[in-house]
């Protein structure tokens, strides 16, 4: 290449100018928006102006050299006396965009060694040339090396595809060497990144291992705490059982002693002391019978949430001053809607209009659909079913059979006009006709201490199999098993009620009322262990009225709680005399509530 050609400029505007395709801005006809897009590429993220001496960090983000110096200086100033100096701890820089950290081996001077962004410089030059050119029509384009400004007659000796700049042959060699240097730096950065990744992976793994150890330690502590609570509860339970055994032996010894005394009186031939001895023995026997009746009556309730046992004792719930009992507006038709029924329950004072105290330890209670004038009560002590005249409230009949040992609860089939009675001691269900005649029993179901019983809309008999922690349904005629629910959800179920397609179960062991469908799906549950509103201490009995309102015999708290169909509590009531242990609830179509109390041997009608 001659010297004249090197330093000659192309000034002949009449010649057709040829430029490399990538630099031919005029031939492409860049529009204003294209220039604006290019300007966005060369804006410094720190000063928000065009880049000046652009320097590229290892993360490939580019900034003004002066901006980087200003930024790192501002963040590392320390006060020494009355002066501000650069901190000696200056060893790294964080990218303002991606926040990645990079080492500065030579403190702030290391910024001078950062590689230039040739692409950004090219775009800046392109924009500068476009701004300085008043008209594209008369522009003369030369092919000048960006380093030495040597002009070439060709379309540029070398055009770099990376930075889009023109180089002469001599400068091209230096440019390639500079790119090789950048590649070497890039390799070093890659290796540093690999090391950094390994350290981070090691650190992350260490943190995970620490968390695993912490989780195991925490769980072990909790298990140890629960084990300790289990040990205490089992010791307490063993003490209660031992106390019961001792009391049993004492009562049994007294039974033998009284029996011998009675036999001695019978054998005594002297007539003078017969009457006095008989009276003494009679009093002693009556006292003994009362002790036998009281033995084992204390209900032991396990609170699974707090892992503790609570022995339910007789309590009295007074609702006289309860704010919920304040009368609201009178309800003419409570059956009109759920809202009207809510108002009706809230407006009632629930003072018993009838109290019968001659009931021998009653269990379940109900009214036969074929004769609503009679009340049927399961008398567990006398092993029979009592039939009362509802209007005169007079005992008119007793239904019994030698097969029946401990009638606990009862239900009626309207279609077959039959009464079904659960027998807790014989572990079966007895069937009586509407006239009280014994028909049969279902004893091949594997029942264990059955309690609550109800008849569904399809005349299926639903039974609380208390000892097996389940509820089963059987065919009313054949006794064939139809379905089972609650195998996993129930613990000591004692009562069941049915409304439509819903089955309500008193889950006494869990102190809850649970609602299932016939497929065994748990739909809803209400309650928890406690004495507060909506909580239970032995939810012994459940009943449902014609609109689906739920009445719960909260035996341990000596009260009845009334809930809406959606489970919202609306009423709590007891009685002026106080409940002992609610054992049965029946709601009539007229909304009379009949309650039996096994501990106080009574029956109340509200």
Automatic annotation (TrEMBL):
Name recorded for this polypeptide: RING-type domain-containing protein
UniProt-listed Gene3D superfamilies: TolB, C-terminal domain, Zinc/RING finger domain, C3HC4 (zinc finger)
Record's keyword annotation contains Coiled coil: yes
Residue numbers spanned by region Disordered: 1-21
UniProt feature coiled coil, ranges: 176-232
Chain positions of NHL repeats: 440-477, 523-566
Keyword field: Coiled coil, Metal-binding, Repeat, Zinc, Zinc-finger
Domain (RING-type): residue spans on this chain: 44-99
Record organism: Psylliodes chrysocephalus
Gene Ontology terms for molecular function: ubiquitin protein ligase activity; zinc ion binding
PROSITE patterns in alphabetical order: NHL, ZF_RING_1, ZF_RING_2
Any one Gene Ontology BP term: protein polyubiquitination
Stored SUPFAM superfamilies: NHL repeat, RING/U-box
Keyword Nucleotide-binding listed: no
CDD domains hit by this protein: NHL
